[in-house]
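Hi there. Long-time user, first ticket. I'm pasting a complex I've been working with (about 519 residues overall). I'd like to know whether the download I got is complete or cut off, because the file seemed smaller than I expected. Thanks.
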Amino acid sequence: MTKILRTVWRHVARSARDLTPIVLVIAFFQYFILQQPLDNALGLVSGAILVLIGLTLFVYGLELALFPIGESLAHALARKGSVFWLLTFSFLLGFGTTVAEPALTAVANEAAKVAAAAGAIADTDQARSRYVLGLRITVALSVGTALLIGVLRILLGWSLPLLIISGYVMVIAMTAVAPPEIVGIAYDSGGVTTSTVTVPLVAALGVGMASSLRDRNPMTDGFGLIAFASLTPMVFVMAYGSIVKWI
Amino acid sequence: MDMMGPMVKTILSTALDVLPILLFIFLFQLFVIRQPIHDLRRLFAGIVFTILGLGLFLVGLEQALFPLGRLMAQQLTHPEFLMSGAEALDFHWTNYKWVYVFAFCIGFATTIAEPALLAVAMKANETSGGAIHVWGLRVAVAIGAAVGVSLGCFRIIAGLPLQAFILVGYIVVVVQTIWAPRLIIPLAYDSGGVTTSTVTVPLVAALGLGLAETVPGRSPLLDGFGLVAFTCLFPIISVLAYAQLSALRERFAGRHKTEAENGAESNSKEVI
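Hi, the file is complete. Here it is re-exported in full:
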Protein backbone atom coordinates (compact mmCIF):
# COMPACT_ATOMS: atom_id res chain seq x y z
CA MET A 1 0.00 0.00 0.00
CA THR A 2 2.74 2.45 0.92
CA LYS A 3 4.46 1.54 -2.32
CA ILE A 4 1.40 2.49 -4.36
CA LEU A 5 0.99 5.71 -2.42
CA ARG A 6 4.61 6.57 -3.00
CA THR A 7 4.26 5.98 -6.76
CA VAL A 8 1.13 8.12 -6.90
CA TRP A 9 2.86 10.84 -4.91
CA ARG A 10 5.87 10.80 -7.23
CA HIS A 11 3.62 11.18 -10.28
CA VAL A 12 1.63 14.01 -8.72
CA ALA A 13 4.78 15.81 -7.59
CA ARG A 14 6.20 15.60 -11.10
CA SER A 15 3.01 17.04 -12.60
CA ALA A 16 3.02 19.81 -10.01
CA ARG A 17 6.55 20.74 -11.02
CA ASP A 18 5.49 20.88 -14.68
CA LEU A 19 2.68 23.28 -13.90
CA THR A 20 4.53 25.59 -11.52
CA PRO A 21 5.97 27.91 -14.23
CA ILE A 22 2.59 28.65 -15.79
CA VAL A 23 1.05 29.47 -12.40
CA LEU A 24 4.00 31.69 -11.47
CA VAL A 25 3.90 33.60 -14.76
CA ILE A 26 0.20 34.32 -14.51
CA ALA A 27 0.38 35.26 -10.82
CA PHE A 28 3.36 37.58 -11.43
CA PHE A 29 1.70 39.47 -14.27
CA GLN A 30 -1.59 39.67 -12.44
CA TYR A 31 -0.16 41.15 -9.25
CA PHE A 32 2.87 43.14 -10.30
CA ILE A 33 2.29 44.29 -13.85
CA LEU A 34 -1.46 44.58 -14.23
CA GLN A 35 -1.92 45.06 -10.48
CA GLN A 36 -5.29 43.48 -10.29
CA PRO A 37 -6.64 41.21 -7.58
CA LEU A 38 -7.85 37.77 -8.49
CA ASP A 39 -11.57 37.38 -8.32
CA ASN A 40 -12.82 33.80 -8.18
CA ALA A 41 -9.79 32.42 -6.38
CA LEU A 42 -11.71 29.26 -5.45
CA GLY A 43 -12.40 28.50 -9.10
CA LEU A 44 -8.73 28.98 -9.87
CA VAL A 45 -7.56 26.61 -7.18
CA SER A 46 -10.06 23.90 -8.11
CA GLY A 47 -9.13 24.34 -11.76
CA ALA A 48 -5.44 23.98 -10.96
CA ILE A 49 -6.15 20.81 -8.98
CA LEU A 50 -8.08 19.37 -11.94
CA VAL A 51 -5.15 20.17 -14.25
CA LEU A 52 -2.81 18.45 -11.82
CA ILE A 53 -4.92 15.28 -11.55
CA GLY A 54 -5.49 15.31 -15.30
CA LEU A 55 -1.82 15.54 -16.23
CA THR A 56 -0.92 12.80 -13.74
CA LEU A 57 -3.55 10.43 -15.13
CA PHE A 58 -2.55 11.24 -18.70
CA VAL A 59 1.10 10.40 -18.10
CA TYR A 60 0.09 7.20 -16.35
CA GLY A 61 -2.19 6.25 -19.25
CA LEU A 62 0.61 7.05 -21.67
CA GLU A 63 2.89 4.45 -20.11
CA LEU A 64 0.08 1.93 -19.71
CA ALA A 65 -1.59 2.19 -23.12
CA LEU A 66 -0.50 4.65 -25.82
CA PHE A 67 3.20 3.75 -25.87
CA PRO A 68 2.66 -0.04 -25.76
CA ILE A 69 -0.06 0.13 -28.47
CA GLY A 70 2.12 2.14 -30.82
CA GLU A 71 5.14 -0.04 -30.25
CA SER A 72 3.45 -3.44 -30.41
CA LEU A 73 1.73 -2.42 -33.64
CA ALA A 74 5.01 -1.29 -35.11
CA HIS A 75 6.67 -4.59 -34.13
CA ALA A 76 3.77 -6.67 -35.43
CA LEU A 77 3.68 -4.80 -38.74
CA ALA A 78 7.42 -5.03 -39.17
CA ARG A 79 7.35 -8.75 -38.41
CA LYS A 80 4.53 -9.29 -40.87
CA GLY A 81 6.86 -7.82 -43.46
CA SER A 82 4.16 -6.34 -45.63
CA VAL A 83 5.22 -2.92 -46.85
CA PHE A 84 1.77 -2.37 -48.30
CA TRP A 85 0.00 -2.71 -44.95
CA LEU A 86 2.63 -0.72 -43.13
CA LEU A 87 2.19 2.22 -45.49
CA THR A 88 -1.60 1.89 -45.49
CA PHE A 89 -1.57 1.93 -41.72
CA SER A 90 0.66 5.01 -41.51
CA PHE A 91 -1.38 6.92 -44.04
CA LEU A 92 -4.71 6.08 -42.38
CA LEU A 93 -3.35 6.86 -38.92
CA GLY A 94 -2.25 10.32 -40.07
CA PHE A 95 -5.42 11.00 -42.01
CA GLY A 96 -7.77 9.68 -39.34
CA THR A 97 -6.22 11.47 -36.39
CA THR A 98 -6.10 14.78 -38.22
CA VAL A 99 -9.44 15.05 -40.01
CA ALA A 100 -11.36 15.19 -36.69
CA GLU A 101 -8.81 17.31 -34.82
CA PRO A 102 -10.66 20.17 -33.03
CA ALA A 103 -7.70 22.57 -33.30
CA LEU A 104 -7.65 22.06 -37.06
CA THR A 105 -11.36 22.79 -37.36
CA ALA A 106 -10.83 26.04 -35.47
CA VAL A 107 -7.98 27.10 -37.75
CA ALA A 108 -9.96 26.08 -40.86
CA ASN A 109 -12.85 28.30 -39.76
CA GLU A 110 -10.50 31.24 -39.39
CA ALA A 111 -9.01 30.50 -42.78
CA ALA A 112 -12.47 30.52 -44.38
CA LYS A 113 -13.11 33.99 -42.92
CA VAL A 114 -9.84 35.27 -44.31
CA ALA A 115 -10.49 33.74 -47.73
CA ALA A 116 -13.96 35.27 -47.85
CA ALA A 117 -12.60 38.68 -46.78
CA ALA A 118 -9.92 38.51 -49.45
CA GLY A 119 -12.51 37.61 -52.08
CA ALA A 120 -11.12 34.18 -52.91
CA ILE A 121 -14.51 32.59 -52.18
CA ALA A 122 -18.05 33.97 -51.96
CA ASP A 123 -18.94 35.34 -48.53
CA THR A 124 -21.80 32.92 -47.83
CA ASP A 125 -22.18 30.21 -45.21
CA GLN A 126 -22.31 27.56 -47.87
CA ALA A 127 -19.14 28.67 -49.61
CA ARG A 128 -17.32 28.97 -46.31
CA SER A 129 -18.30 25.54 -45.03
CA ARG A 130 -17.25 23.99 -48.33
CA TYR A 131 -13.93 25.75 -47.98
CA VAL A 132 -13.54 24.51 -44.38
CA LEU A 133 -14.26 20.91 -45.35
CA GLY A 134 -11.87 21.12 -48.28
CA LEU A 135 -9.14 22.52 -46.07
CA ARG A 136 -9.63 19.88 -43.37
CA ILE A 137 -9.40 17.07 -45.92
CA THR A 138 -6.33 18.73 -47.47
CA VAL A 139 -4.52 18.93 -44.14
CA ALA A 140 -5.55 15.37 -43.21
CA LEU A 141 -4.21 14.16 -46.58
CA SER A 142 -1.00 16.04 -45.92
CA VAL A 143 -0.48 14.43 -42.52
CA GLY A 144 -1.29 11.00 -43.97
CA THR A 145 1.28 11.62 -46.70
CA ALA A 146 3.77 12.85 -44.11
CA LEU A 147 3.56 9.64 -42.06
CA LEU A 148 3.72 7.57 -45.24
CA ILE A 149 6.91 9.32 -46.37
CA GLY A 150 8.30 9.18 -42.83
CA VAL A 151 7.73 5.43 -42.51
CA LEU A 152 9.13 4.85 -45.98
CA ARG A 153 12.21 6.78 -44.88
CA ILE A 154 12.68 4.50 -41.88
CA LEU A 155 12.28 1.41 -44.09
CA LEU A 156 14.66 2.55 -46.79
CA GLY A 157 17.09 4.48 -44.61
CA TRP A 158 16.78 7.81 -46.45
CA SER A 159 18.49 10.85 -45.00
CA LEU A 160 16.16 12.88 -42.79
CA PRO A 161 17.91 16.27 -43.11
CA LEU A 162 17.83 16.00 -46.89
CA LEU A 163 14.09 15.33 -46.89
CA ILE A 164 13.34 18.07 -44.36
CA ILE A 165 15.44 20.60 -46.26
CA SER A 166 13.65 19.78 -49.51
CA GLY A 167 10.45 20.31 -47.54
CA TYR A 168 11.69 23.76 -46.52
CA VAL A 169 12.51 24.56 -50.12
CA MET A 170 8.98 23.53 -51.12
CA VAL A 171 7.50 25.75 -48.38
CA ILE A 172 9.52 28.73 -49.61
CA ALA A 173 8.65 28.03 -53.24
CA MET A 174 4.93 27.71 -52.43
CA THR A 175 5.08 30.95 -50.42
CA ALA A 176 6.20 32.75 -53.54
CA VAL A 177 3.23 31.58 -55.61
CA ALA A 178 0.44 31.25 -53.03
CA PRO A 179 -2.05 34.09 -52.43
CA PRO A 180 -0.57 36.20 -49.59
CA GLU A 181 -3.61 35.91 -47.30
CA ILE A 182 -3.26 32.12 -46.97
CA VAL A 183 0.44 32.17 -46.01
CA GLY A 184 0.04 32.97 -42.30
CA ILE A 185 -2.61 30.31 -41.81
CA ALA A 186 -0.63 27.78 -43.80
CA TYR A 187 2.43 28.32 -41.59
CA ASP A 188 0.35 27.96 -38.45
CA SER A 189 -1.44 24.83 -39.67
CA GLY A 190 1.84 22.92 -39.41
CA GLY A 191 1.79 23.32 -35.67
CA VAL A 192 -1.81 22.56 -34.89
CA THR A 193 -2.06 19.19 -36.60
CA THR A 194 0.00 17.24 -34.11
CA SER A 195 -2.29 16.60 -31.16
CA THR A 196 -1.57 15.32 -27.68
CA VAL A 197 -2.89 11.84 -28.46
CA THR A 198 -1.31 11.52 -31.90
CA VAL A 199 2.20 12.53 -30.83
CA PRO A 200 2.83 9.67 -28.35
CA LEU A 201 1.35 7.12 -30.78
CA VAL A 202 3.42 8.34 -33.70
CA ALA A 203 6.61 8.59 -31.62
CA ALA A 204 6.11 5.02 -30.37
CA LEU A 205 5.38 3.86 -33.92
CA GLY A 206 8.60 5.34 -35.29
CA VAL A 207 10.84 4.15 -32.49
CA GLY A 208 9.17 0.73 -32.44
CA MET A 209 9.73 0.29 -36.15
CA ALA A 210 13.31 1.46 -36.14
CA SER A 211 14.15 -0.89 -33.27
CA SER A 212 12.56 -3.93 -34.91
CA LEU A 213 14.39 -3.45 -38.20
CA ARG A 214 17.95 -4.61 -38.53
CA ASP A 215 20.67 -1.94 -38.87
CA ARG A 216 18.33 0.90 -37.99
CA ASN A 217 19.11 3.05 -34.99
CA PRO A 218 15.98 3.89 -32.94
CA MET A 219 17.45 7.27 -32.01
CA THR A 220 18.42 8.52 -35.48
CA ASP A 221 15.81 6.63 -37.51
CA GLY A 222 12.90 6.37 -35.08
CA PHE A 223 12.34 10.07 -34.60
CA GLY A 224 11.42 12.45 -37.40
CA LEU A 225 7.84 11.35 -38.14
CA ILE A 226 6.37 14.34 -36.28
CA ALA A 227 8.71 16.67 -38.15
CA PHE A 228 7.16 15.54 -41.43
CA ALA A 229 3.67 15.87 -40.00
CA SER A 230 4.28 19.51 -39.13
CA LEU A 231 5.95 20.35 -42.44
CA THR A 232 3.67 18.93 -45.16
CA PRO A 233 0.50 20.76 -44.01
CA MET A 234 2.20 24.08 -44.83
CA VAL A 235 2.86 23.02 -48.42
CA PHE A 236 -0.57 21.42 -48.89
CA VAL A 237 -2.53 24.35 -47.40
CA MET A 238 -0.73 26.86 -49.62
CA ALA A 239 -1.42 24.61 -52.60
CA TYR A 240 -5.09 24.46 -51.58
CA GLY A 241 -5.25 28.25 -51.25
CA SER A 242 -3.72 28.70 -54.67
CA ILE A 243 -6.03 26.19 -56.34
CA VAL A 244 -9.16 27.73 -54.81
CA LYS A 245 -8.06 31.20 -55.78
CA TRP A 246 -6.73 30.68 -59.28
CA ILE A 247 -9.22 28.12 -60.55
CA MET B 1 -22.17 22.07 -8.99
CA ASP B 2 -21.72 24.25 -12.05
CA MET B 3 -18.46 22.46 -12.75
CA MET B 4 -19.90 19.01 -13.43
CA GLY B 5 -21.62 19.96 -16.68
CA PRO B 6 -18.57 21.18 -18.60
CA MET B 7 -16.46 18.46 -17.04
CA VAL B 8 -18.63 15.63 -18.33
CA LYS B 9 -18.91 17.38 -21.67
CA THR B 10 -15.17 17.84 -22.08
CA ILE B 11 -14.36 14.26 -21.08
CA LEU B 12 -16.98 12.99 -23.52
CA SER B 13 -15.60 15.12 -26.34
CA THR B 14 -12.07 13.94 -25.54
CA ALA B 15 -13.33 10.37 -25.69
CA LEU B 16 -14.97 11.12 -29.04
CA ASP B 17 -11.64 12.43 -30.35
CA VAL B 18 -9.70 9.41 -29.14
CA LEU B 19 -12.16 6.60 -29.89
CA PRO B 20 -11.95 6.68 -33.71
CA ILE B 21 -8.16 6.34 -33.44
CA LEU B 22 -8.49 3.41 -31.06
CA LEU B 23 -11.21 1.75 -33.12
CA PHE B 24 -9.00 2.00 -36.18
CA ILE B 25 -6.06 0.50 -34.32
CA PHE B 26 -8.09 -2.39 -32.93
CA LEU B 27 -9.64 -3.16 -36.32
CA PHE B 28 -6.19 -3.16 -37.82
CA GLN B 29 -4.96 -5.48 -35.11
CA LEU B 30 -7.92 -7.78 -35.62
CA PHE B 31 -8.08 -7.98 -39.42
CA VAL B 32 -4.60 -7.25 -40.70
CA ILE B 33 -2.26 -8.42 -37.97
CA ARG B 34 -4.67 -11.12 -36.75
CA GLN B 35 -3.09 -11.53 -33.39
CA PRO B 36 -4.68 -11.30 -29.99
CA ILE B 37 -3.78 -8.21 -27.98
CA HIS B 38 -1.65 -8.85 -24.92
CA ASP B 39 -2.86 -7.76 -21.55
CA LEU B 40 -6.14 -6.26 -22.70
CA ARG B 41 -7.16 -5.20 -19.19
CA ARG B 42 -4.03 -3.15 -18.64
CA LEU B 43 -4.44 -1.52 -22.04
CA PHE B 44 -8.06 -0.72 -21.37
CA ALA B 45 -7.19 0.85 -18.01
CA GLY B 46 -4.49 2.91 -19.70
CA ILE B 47 -6.90 4.21 -22.32
CA VAL B 48 -9.44 5.16 -19.64
CA PHE B 49 -6.66 6.99 -17.74
CA THR B 50 -5.56 8.81 -20.89
CA ILE B 51 -9.04 10.01 -21.78
CA LEU B 52 -9.96 10.90 -18.22
CA GLY B 53 -6.62 12.62 -17.66
CA LEU B 54 -6.73 14.67 -20.85
CA GLY B 55 -10.35 15.59 -20.16
CA LEU B 56 -9.70 16.79 -16.60
CA PHE B 57 -6.58 18.59 -17.78
CA LEU B 58 -8.59 20.53 -20.38
CA VAL B 59 -11.45 21.32 -17.98
CA GLY B 60 -8.98 22.64 -15.42
CA LEU B 61 -7.16 24.76 -17.99
CA GLU B 62 -10.42 26.13 -19.34
CA GLN B 63 -11.56 26.96 -15.83
CA ALA B 64 -8.43 28.39 -14.31
CA LEU B 65 -5.66 29.32 -16.70
CA PHE B 66 -7.09 30.04 -20.13
CA PRO B 67 -9.55 32.81 -19.13
CA LEU B 68 -6.83 34.55 -17.14
CA GLY B 69 -4.22 34.11 -19.85
CA ARG B 70 -6.54 35.43 -22.54
CA LEU B 71 -7.58 38.37 -20.37
CA MET B 72 -3.95 39.14 -19.71
CA ALA B 73 -3.08 39.03 -23.39
CA GLN B 74 -5.87 41.54 -24.02
CA GLN B 75 -4.93 43.80 -21.13
CA LEU B 76 -1.25 43.85 -21.91
CA THR B 77 -1.87 44.74 -25.54
CA HIS B 78 -4.48 47.37 -24.68
CA PRO B 79 -3.37 50.91 -25.68
CA GLU B 80 -4.38 52.31 -22.28
CA PHE B 81 -2.00 50.02 -20.44
CA LEU B 82 0.81 50.59 -22.92
CA MET B 83 0.58 54.36 -22.94
CA SER B 84 -0.08 54.60 -19.20
CA GLY B 85 -2.14 57.73 -19.89
CA ALA B 86 0.51 60.30 -20.63
CA GLU B 87 2.08 59.99 -24.06
CA ALA B 88 0.24 60.70 -27.26
CA LEU B 89 -0.36 58.29 -30.13
CA ASP B 90 3.25 57.37 -30.45
CA PHE B 91 3.07 53.68 -31.29
CA HIS B 92 6.52 52.33 -31.43
CA TRP B 93 7.54 48.72 -31.00
CA THR B 94 9.58 49.61 -27.91
CA ASN B 95 6.40 50.58 -26.04
CA TYR B 96 5.44 46.96 -25.86
CA LYS B 97 8.20 45.74 -23.56
CA TRP B 98 5.82 43.98 -21.17
CA VAL B 99 4.25 42.18 -24.10
CA TYR B 100 7.63 40.70 -25.02
CA VAL B 101 8.32 39.70 -21.43
CA PHE B 102 4.88 38.15 -21.12
CA ALA B 103 5.26 36.39 -24.48
CA PHE B 104 8.61 34.95 -23.42
CA CYS B 105 7.36 33.76 -20.03
CA ILE B 106 4.08 32.32 -21.28
CA GLY B 107 5.85 30.61 -24.19
CA PHE B 108 8.26 28.98 -21.77
CA ALA B 109 5.67 28.05 -19.14
CA THR B 110 3.08 26.57 -21.51
CA THR B 111 5.72 24.51 -23.28
CA ILE B 112 6.93 23.01 -20.01
CA ALA B 113 3.32 22.04 -19.22
CA GLU B 114 2.71 20.54 -22.68
CA PRO B 115 1.81 16.83 -22.33
CA ALA B 116 2.83 15.98 -25.92
CA LEU B 117 6.34 17.29 -25.32
CA LEU B 118 6.54 15.33 -22.08
CA ALA B 119 5.58 12.19 -24.00
CA VAL B 120 8.28 12.69 -26.63
CA ALA B 121 10.88 13.55 -23.98
CA MET B 122 10.02 10.34 -22.09
CA LYS B 123 10.34 8.35 -25.31
CA ALA B 124 13.66 10.02 -26.17
CA ASN B 125 15.00 9.33 -22.69
CA GLU B 126 14.04 5.66 -22.96
CA THR B 127 15.37 5.29 -26.51
CA SER B 128 18.68 6.99 -25.82
CA GLY B 129 19.24 4.85 -22.75
CA GLY B 130 19.10 7.89 -20.47
CA ALA B 131 21.60 10.02 -22.42
CA ILE B 132 18.90 12.57 -23.16
CA HIS B 133 17.37 13.93 -19.98
CA VAL B 134 13.61 14.47 -19.96
CA TRP B 135 13.96 17.77 -18.14
CA GLY B 136 16.93 19.02 -20.20
CA LEU B 137 15.14 18.44 -23.50
CA ARG B 138 12.00 20.14 -22.24
CA VAL B 139 13.86 23.20 -21.02
CA ALA B 140 15.75 23.47 -24.32
CA VAL B 141 12.48 23.25 -26.26
CA ALA B 142 10.76 25.71 -23.90
CA ILE B 143 13.51 28.31 -24.35
CA GLY B 144 13.13 28.00 -28.11
CA ALA B 145 9.37 28.38 -27.86
CA ALA B 146 9.75 31.40 -25.56
CA VAL B 147 12.09 33.15 -28.01
CA GLY B 148 9.74 32.20 -30.85
CA VAL B 149 6.64 33.69 -29.22
CA SER B 150 8.31 36.95 -28.22
CA LEU B 151 9.96 37.38 -31.61
CA GLY B 152 6.60 36.61 -33.23
CA CYS B 153 5.00 39.35 -31.14
CA PHE B 154 7.70 41.76 -32.21
CA ARG B 155 6.99 40.88 -35.83
CA ILE B 156 3.26 41.59 -35.46
CA ILE B 157 3.92 44.89 -33.66
CA ALA B 158 6.63 46.04 -36.07
CA GLY B 159 4.65 44.81 -39.08
CA LEU B 160 7.49 42.89 -40.68
CA PRO B 161 6.85 40.14 -43.25
CA LEU B 162 6.35 36.67 -41.79
CA GLN B 163 8.04 34.97 -44.75
CA ALA B 164 11.34 36.73 -44.15
CA PHE B 165 11.56 35.47 -40.57
CA ILE B 166 10.62 31.93 -41.51
CA LEU B 167 13.13 31.92 -44.37
CA VAL B 168 15.95 33.08 -42.09
CA GLY B 169 14.89 30.51 -39.48
CA TYR B 170 15.06 27.73 -42.09
CA ILE B 171 18.50 28.85 -43.17
CA VAL B 172 19.70 28.78 -39.55
CA VAL B 173 18.29 25.26 -39.11
CA VAL B 174 20.02 24.05 -42.29
CA VAL B 175 23.36 25.54 -41.25
CA GLN B 176 23.06 24.06 -37.75
CA THR B 177 22.19 20.66 -39.19
CA ILE B 178 25.56 20.50 -40.92
CA TRP B 179 27.48 20.68 -37.63
CA ALA B 180 25.06 19.33 -35.03
CA PRO B 181 25.62 15.88 -33.44
CA ARG B 182 23.88 13.37 -35.70
CA LEU B 183 22.07 11.70 -32.84
CA ILE B 184 20.04 14.74 -31.92
CA ILE B 185 18.93 15.93 -35.39
CA PRO B 186 15.73 13.88 -35.79
CA LEU B 187 14.64 14.64 -32.25
CA ALA B 188 15.31 18.36 -32.76
CA TYR B 189 13.18 18.37 -35.92
CA ASP B 190 10.39 16.60 -34.05
CA SER B 191 10.48 19.01 -31.14
CA GLY B 192 9.11 21.75 -33.36
CA GLY B 193 5.82 20.00 -33.93
CA VAL B 194 5.25 18.78 -30.39
CA THR B 195 5.60 22.19 -28.80
CA THR B 196 2.33 23.45 -30.14
CA SER B 197 -0.49 21.47 -28.64
CA THR B 198 -3.24 21.64 -26.07
CA VAL B 199 -1.76 24.24 -23.73
CA THR B 200 0.32 26.46 -25.97
CA VAL B 201 -1.88 27.02 -29.01
CA PRO B 202 -4.92 28.61 -27.30
CA LEU B 203 -2.84 31.06 -25.26
CA VAL B 204 -0.40 31.94 -28.02
CA ALA B 205 -3.19 32.37 -30.57
CA ALA B 206 -5.03 34.68 -28.13
CA LEU B 207 -1.90 36.78 -27.74
CA GLY B 208 -1.46 37.08 -31.51
CA LEU B 209 -5.08 38.02 -32.13
CA GLY B 210 -5.04 40.50 -29.23
CA LEU B 211 -1.97 42.21 -30.67
CA ALA B 212 -3.29 42.29 -34.22
CA GLU B 213 -6.54 43.82 -32.99
CA THR B 214 -5.01 46.61 -30.93
CA VAL B 215 -1.84 47.58 -32.78
CA PRO B 216 -2.78 50.33 -35.26
CA GLY B 217 -2.57 49.30 -38.88
CA ARG B 218 -2.75 45.54 -38.26
CA SER B 219 -5.67 43.36 -39.24
CA PRO B 220 -6.49 40.37 -37.03
CA LEU B 221 -7.31 38.34 -40.11
CA LEU B 222 -4.02 38.92 -41.88
CA ASP B 223 -1.52 39.65 -39.12
CA GLY B 224 -2.91 37.57 -36.24
CA PHE B 225 -1.38 34.40 -37.63
CA GLY B 226 2.19 33.25 -37.62
CA LEU B 227 2.83 33.02 -33.89
CA VAL B 228 2.23 29.26 -33.86
CA ALA B 229 4.65 28.90 -36.76
CA PHE B 230 7.30 30.80 -34.79
CA THR B 231 6.66 28.62 -31.75
CA CYS B 232 7.19 25.61 -34.01
CA LEU B 233 10.39 26.76 -35.67
CA PHE B 234 12.52 28.09 -32.83
CA PRO B 235 12.61 24.94 -30.65
CA ILE B 236 14.36 23.18 -33.56
CA ILE B 237 17.07 25.84 -33.41
CA SER B 238 17.34 25.81 -29.61
CA VAL B 239 17.53 22.02 -29.32
CA LEU B 240 20.21 21.86 -32.03
CA ALA B 241 22.08 24.71 -30.34
CA TYR B 242 21.92 23.00 -26.97
CA ALA B 243 23.26 19.76 -28.39
CA GLN B 244 26.03 21.68 -30.16
CA LEU B 245 26.97 23.48 -26.96
CA SER B 246 27.08 20.20 -25.04
CA ALA B 247 29.28 18.66 -27.72
CA LEU B 248 31.59 21.66 -27.64
CA ARG B 249 31.87 21.62 -23.87
CA GLU B 250 32.65 17.96 -24.04
CA ARG B 251 35.41 18.52 -26.55
CA PHE B 252 36.99 21.16 -24.33
CA ALA B 253 36.70 18.95 -21.27
CA GLY B 254 38.13 16.06 -23.28
CA ARG B 255 41.38 17.90 -23.96
CA HIS B 256 42.22 17.92 -20.29
CA LYS B 257 41.62 14.25 -19.85
CA THR B 258 43.98 11.38 -20.46
CA GLU B 259 43.51 9.73 -23.81
CA ALA B 260 42.23 6.46 -22.41
CA GLU B 261 39.40 8.11 -20.54
CA ASN B 262 38.60 10.23 -23.51
CA GLY B 263 38.14 7.34 -25.90
CA ALA B 264 35.90 5.44 -23.55
CA GLU B 265 33.69 8.35 -22.69
CA SER B 266 33.17 10.13 -25.96
CA ASN B 267 30.75 7.50 -27.22
CA SER B 268 28.55 7.29 -24.19
CA LYS B 269 28.54 10.96 -23.23
CA GLU B 270 25.30 12.69 -22.52
CA VAL B 271 23.82 14.54 -25.43
CA ILE B 272 21.58 16.80 -23.41
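A couple of notes from our side: Chain A touches chain B through 101 residues (CB under 8 Å). The CA atoms of residues 112 and 130 of chain A lie 9 Å apart.
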